[in-house]
């Protein structure tokens, strides 16, 4: 699938403002917070719902394109950074940032992936 077709499909899913393709816009997502790991990506897609995540994953699977999920980009081992090939799609989960439940009796909290 041509790059432009893939981008158009992502835009249809999450809107143009949430598909980053410019180097400056993608840059913060392509390095870990310590600056130790650097990578490249076709684009950064920023879904806001689990339904959008599912559609993005399905689109990538159908196109045979690798994905790299990224929550808060605080990985200590570089797993949230794509390799340097520039072939993967980075899925930033930062917009999935809601607190779903707080359970003080059990000292637990349920949060979305971008928290």
Would you give an account of this structure?
It contains three helices and six strands. It has helices at residues 3-14, 23-26, 50-63; strands spanning 19-20, 43-45, 67-70, 89-92, 99-103, 108-111. A four-stranded mixed sheet has the order 1-2-4-3. It has a two-stranded antiparallel ribbon with strand order 5-6. A hairpin with a 4-residue loop joins strand 5 (99-103) and strand 6 (108-111). Helix 1 (3-14) runs antiparallel to helix 3 (50-63). The termini are far apart.
Fold blueprint:
Layout: H1 3-14, E1 19-20, H2 23-26, E2 43-45, H3 50-63, E3 67-70, E4 89-92, E5 99-103, E6 108-111
Parallel strand pairs: 2-4, 3-4
Antiparallel strand pairs: 1-2, 5-6
Helix pairs in contact: 1-3
What can be said about the biggest beta sheet?
Answer: 4 strands, mixed
Helix run count? 3
Q: Would you list the SSEs in sequence order as H and E?
A: HEHEHEEEE
Shape: globular
Radius of gyration: 15 Å
- Portion of residues in beta strands equals 15-25%
Residue stretches low in confidence (pLDDT < 50, at least 5 long) are none
Summarize the structure.
This protein is an alpha/beta fold. It has helices at residues 3-14, 23-26, 50-63; strands at 19-20, 43-45, 67-70, 89-92, 99-103, 108-111.
Overview features:
115 residues, globular, 4-stranded mixed sheet, alpha/beta, two-stranded antiparallel sheet, 6 strands
């Amino acid at each position: 699938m041509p790059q432009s077709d893939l981008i158009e499909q992502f835009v249809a899913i999450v809107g143009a403002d949430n598909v980053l393709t410019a180097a400056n816009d993608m840059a913060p997502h392509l390095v870990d917070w310590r600056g130790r790991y650097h990578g490249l990506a076709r684009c950064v897609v920023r879904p806001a719902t689990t339904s959008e995540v599912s559609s993005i994953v399905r689109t990538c699977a159908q196109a045979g394109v690798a994905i790299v999920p990224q929550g808060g980009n605080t990985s200590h081992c570089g797993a949230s950074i794509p390799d340097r090939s520039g072939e993967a799609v980075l899925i930033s989960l930062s917009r999935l940032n809601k607190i779903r439940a707080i359970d003080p009796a059990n000292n637990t909290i349920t949060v979305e992936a971008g928290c």
